[in-house]
Amino acid sequence: MSALRERVQIERQITRLQYSLSIDALQLSEEYQKRIEVLKALDFVDSTGMVTFKGRVACEIHHQELLITELILSKKLHEKSPAEVAAMFSATTCQYKGGDGPQFDKDSIFFQLKEDVQSTNDWIEGRAALVKARIADVGDELRYDLMEVVYHWASGMWEFVYKITKHNLNDHSLRIDVRFSELGRDLIKLIVKIVAPVTELHA
Question: What sign does the dihedral 46-47-49-50 (CA atoms) show?
Fold first, then answer.
């Protein structure tokens, strides 16, 4: 009888676990509902729960998708040079931490690039705060330590990059390169999936 009792208890535990992982349980959770409200507030999902154009764009990006999508669609990147765009995206891929981060002069290009990224992130967090939710992986991961390095790298100034990175960034270079490559692939897929059909329509 004790073996039977244990088996029944185990089966009940399995049933509870299966339900807790099910779609039905997820939809009833407060955290899930808050995340949906955040997506609605950001216009990634409409009032009926359907994914919008902005939401489809975000689905093609696998890291910092909310922030990167906002940067793209809010036209923060439209008048930027390739080097400036790369510098802005470096804030989402940098894993190197140098204290409190760099302090840029207010008249420098890097101060403005940082402001564009930070203001967009603050806007996202503000929308989340309206529904009493917090998006943990956005602002927490933003680092501006490599913004200047990436800018000069993307501008082809290899000697400058070598001088300022040879002492302290070697351990991080590979991880940064991998994450930049992943982001690049995401953006290429995004262009093919969304821009190409529009081009064909007007051809």
Answer: negative
